[in-house]
TrEMBL record, chain A:
The keyword GTP-binding applies. This is LAO/AO transport system kinase. Keywords: Chaperone, GTP-binding, Hydrolase, Kinase, Nucleotide-binding, Transferase. The keyword Cytoplasm does not apply. One of its GO terms (molecular function) is GTPase activity. Pfam families: MeaB. Gene3D superfamilies: P-loop containing nucleotide triphosphate hydrolases. It comes from Anaerovirgula multivorans. It comes from the Bacteria.
TrEMBL record, chain B:
CDD domains: MM_CoA_mut_B12_BD. This is Methylmalonyl-CoA mutase, C-terminal domain. The lineage of its organism: Bacteria, Bacillati, Bacillota, Clostridia, Peptostreptococcales. InterPro entries: Acid_CoA_mut_C, Cobalamin-bd, Cobalamin-bd_sf. One of its GO terms (molecular function) is cobalamin binding.
Length: 313, 133
């Protein structure tokens, strides 16, 4: 029996090994992903994002424990940064979730970003599909601690939960473009600290300016003390219910699929036409001329694209 | 091998001293490995379940409590029950008396690194003894 079949039968090790293969870009991985695709789309995918140290892992742990009470099966994909210098990483999100290790209804996988900059790793979306086909009801994706512009999470999820903490800046931070625009549900963690009410007001004011059908709710929580978790789960479910009426869910997923296809195609084109030794050499030859101001980089890039198109037409 | 080596670093049992585990985690990171740091006070079962889900090449355990003769064979035994021992390298570090080392190796621990071992020695051992291609 191959890995995909074993996965569909609910074998944990098959799920784990398949994620490894996708991460390592092994050639049978894509085949397996195509094979399981018809069995995906059942899980509700929630992205958890926010600045480093906001309490994303602790909150994930509490949310998962709450959902386990309703007997929901849950997956967690936790992304931490890979060193751009050595390729190594410390994946430490499990530290806050050790009680969940032995729960047969929970699957936790840690991933390094491996050079990917949007808060996820290249293999994250593949891993979501694997856990979906494995038969989980909810999948949480915990991003790396984000700054202001790591918004990839929105492309991979049905609901984005933005975790904020008091004291990170003034109200201008709240109206800047970027991550503040992608939250469907907001949680202000560590709300027992000074400034929580002010942070809440600032976020509420920012959200009042949005003119979308869905007004993201803002909830104060103290994850470590399990305070506000019940309310937050209620908000997440409300967002789910909101998307499930009319065609809003399929609209969101269509938009995400469009971006996914675009990205996969770009990657594949890059690999096929640009990552050959021959092309690399050609580019290096040009680079010397560009550095010596014999030719400009804009003309060169146009020429390269022209040659590729001519060859393939 | 062009994929990163995945290593679970954890502390089974009840001692709360994780400085050594953190030093080795950092050294493995700098050697280009993906270190899944699982933290303190884990049961052998928690470690083995994490090893399955994370699909690691290496389980590296740090023990300073003196309970190594009990905990380490238990981890190996559970890895065997789960059918992943053949693919998983088990190593250990910490305050382990010399006379206990043969017993631990007989029980399936590949190597024991006692205090003072240069991190480079551990890194080389991992690279040369992986059970998976």
């Amino acid at each position: 029996m191959d890995l995909a079949e074993r996965l569909l039968k609910g074998e944990k090790r098959a799920a784990a090994r398949l994620i490894t293969k996708v991460e390592n870009n092994e050639k049978d991985a894509l085949e397996a992903l195509s094979q399981i695709y018809p069995h995906t789309g059942k899980a509700w995918v929630i992205g958890i994002t926010g600045p480093p140290g906001a309490g994303k892992s602790t909150l994930t742990d509490k949310l998962v424990k709450r959902l386990r009470k309703d007997d929901k099966k849950v997956g967690i994909i936790a992304v931490d940064p890979t060193s751009p210098f050595t390729g190594g990483s410390i994946l430490g999100d499990r530290i806050r979730m050790s009680d969940l290790n032995t729960d047969p209804g929970v699957f936790i996988r840690s991933m390094g970003t491996r050079g990917y900059l949007g808060g996820l790793s290249k293999a994250t979306q593949g891993a979501v599909k694997i856990l979906d086909a494995y038969g989980l009801d909810y999948i949480f994706i915990e991003t790396v601690g984000v700054g202001q512009s790591e918004v990839d999470i929105v492309k991979a999820t049905d609901t984005v939960l933005m975790v904020m903490v008091p004291g990170l800046g003034d109200d201008i931070q709240a109206i800047k473009a970027g991550i503040m625009e992608i939250g469907d549900v907001f949680a202000i963690n560590k709300a027992d600290r000074e400034g929580a009410d002010r942070t809440k007001t600032e976020i509420e004011m920012m959200l009042d300016f949005n003119h979308k059908d869905w007004r993201p709710p803002v909830t104060k929580i103290v994850a470590i003390k399990n305070e506000g978790i019940e309310e937050l789960v209620g908000q997440l479910n409300k967002h789910k219910e909101y998307l499930e009426v009319d065609d809003k869910l399929i609209e969101r997923r269509t938009k995400n699929s469009e971006l996914e296809i675009l990205e996969l195609t770009q990657q594949s084109l890059m690999d096929r036409v640009l990552n050959s030794d021959e092309k690399r050499e050609e580019i290096r030859d040009y680079a010397e001329k560009v550095a010596n101001r014999e030719v400009d980089p804009y003309t060169v890039s146009n020429e390269i694209v022209g040659k590729i198109l001519a060859k393939n037409s | 091998m062009d994929r990163p080596i995945r290593v679970l670093v954890g502390k089974p049992g009840l001692d709360g001293h994780d400085r050594g585990a953190k030093v080795i985690a950092r050294a493995l990171r700098d050697a280009g490995m993906e270190v899944i740091y699982t933290g303190l006070r884990l049961t052998p079962d928690q470690i083995v379940q994490a090893a399955i889900q994370e699909d690691v090449d290496v389980v590296a355990l740090s023990i300073l409590s003196g309970a190594h003769n009990h905990l380490l064979p238990k981890v190996v035994e559970l890895l065997k029950v789960e059918n992943i021992y053949d693919e998983t390298l088990v190593i250990c570090g910490g305050v382990i008396p010399e006379e206990d080392i043969p017993f631990l190796k007989e029980k399936g621990v590949a190597e024991v690194f006692t205090p003072g071992t240069p991190t480079g020695v551990t890194i080389d051992f991992i690279k040369q003894n992986l059970k998976r291609a």
